[in-house]
Design goal:
three-stranded antiparallel beta sheet; alpha/beta; 358 residues; 12 strands; 10 helices
Length: 358
């Protein structure tokens, strides 16, 4: 950390050294194929912070290739546990158990899974004598690595908060006290869910054995906005990691710096190469390439309604990939006749002005 301050002499924010400005593909920081870079600007001063590699369609292709190889052939979807005996070459997830997962977060997690129903003659000769109530535990190792990842986020909280301060105009105190620790907690939450993804045993009308498997959906593309660069990174990446997916992340072109730092920490935590890839660049080029890519199985986008429509169109006209969208809106409220108007007014003010009214 350098010794300069960000803001007035009353500020305690130190301008961090910018360590990572290249694309992160298959576990390495690399230049874009074109060699192009773009400026990332401080919204506080309007000055250039640094130049960052500008990823394009060809770079997205490389990142998707790395993610596909990591999914099809790498360890992440099929990390072995200590209890299960059943193995296969597809990294299928099958668990029996219960989980105290909230509906919203459960939806995020299961959105990264594909449900498959199977019926076979009983007993199933392919189950190798394994009871359906016995856990096939591939989540324990993912959980351990994700917990380590969260610890590394906490250990680097001050530097990460400073990056979001200079790059996104975030309040340093809020980032250090809330955003960064909160993101680490989201990561730990989904780490705890990694070994609790389970299917169901189905009652069949004939002499058949029926059950469901939840599989990681595959390669996921994440396109995240600029107003909460850290929170949105982990709200998208964490459930995909827990499910066993691999991914390509495109942070907003206005706020690329912390995402590249998180890619570095992922490698330090032991997440295998190719599981997380980060492509910095612009929506009409890198973002569009993710939305239309034939080898991406799902895309998750947070941003404007206008661009969300384009993402849906690209998904539909390419390989009909699954899409999750969080679009538009600005602090809407529905206030009923019996509401506490003073409290509603306070909440409306908080909703409209929180995070610099973003």
């Amino acid at each position: 950390m350098a010794g300069h301050t960000n803001g007035s002499t009353e500020s305690f924010v130190k301008i961090p050294e910018i360590k990572f400005t290249k694309l992160f593909i298959n576990g390495e920081f690399v230049d874009s194929i074109s060699g192009k870079t773009f400026e990332t600007i401080s919204p506080r001063t309007g000055e250039v912070i640094t130049r960052v590699a500008e990823g394009d369609r060809e770079d997205v292709d490389l990142a998707v290739k790395a993610a596909r190889d990591a999914f099809d052939n790498g360890p992440w979807p099929r990390l072995p546990g200590s209890k299960g005996k059943h193995r296969n070459n597809k990294g299928l997830l099958k668990y029996e158990g219960s989980s105290d997962i909230s509906n919203t977060k459960l939806g995020n997690l299961l959105g990264s899974c594909r449900k498959r129903e199977i019926a076979c003659e009983s007993p199933n000769p392919n189950m190798d004598g394994l009871s359906l109530t016995r856990p096939v535990d591939r989540g324990q190792e993912r959980r351990r690595i994700m917990m380590k990842y969260a610890d590394l986020v906490d250990e680097n909280a001050e530097e990460l908060a400073a990056l979001d301060t200079i790059d996104a105009g975030k309040l340093f105190g809020m980032g250090k006290a809330l955003d960064i620790p909160g993101a680490a907690q989201v990561l730990r939450y989904y780490a705890g869910a990694a070994d609790k993804i389970h299917g169901e045993t189905l009652k069949m009308s004939r002499e058949l054995q029926g059950y469901t498997l939840r599989e990681p959906i595959g390669v996921v593309g994440h396109i995240i906005p600029w107003n909460f660069p850290t929170n949105m990174f982990f709200l998208k990446v964490s459930p995909a990691l827990a499910a066993g997916c691999t991914m390509v992340v495109k942070p907003a072109e206005q706020t690329p710096l912390s995402a590249l730092f998180y890619a570095h920490l992922a490698k330090q935590a032991g997440i295998p190469d190719g599981v997380i890839n980060v492509i910095t660049g612009f929506g009409p080029t890198a973002g569009a390439a993710i939305g239309s890519h034939m080898d991406i199985d799902k895309v998750s986008f947070t941003g404007s309604t206008e661009v969300g429509r384009l993402v849906m169109q690209a998904a539909a006209t390419s390989n009909l990939k699954a899409v999750s969208l969080e679009l538009g809106g600005k602090s809407p409220l529905i206030i009923f006749d019996d509401a506490d108007v003073e409290k509603a007014a306070d909440l409306a003010l908080l909703g409209i002005l929180y995070n610099k009214a973003e």
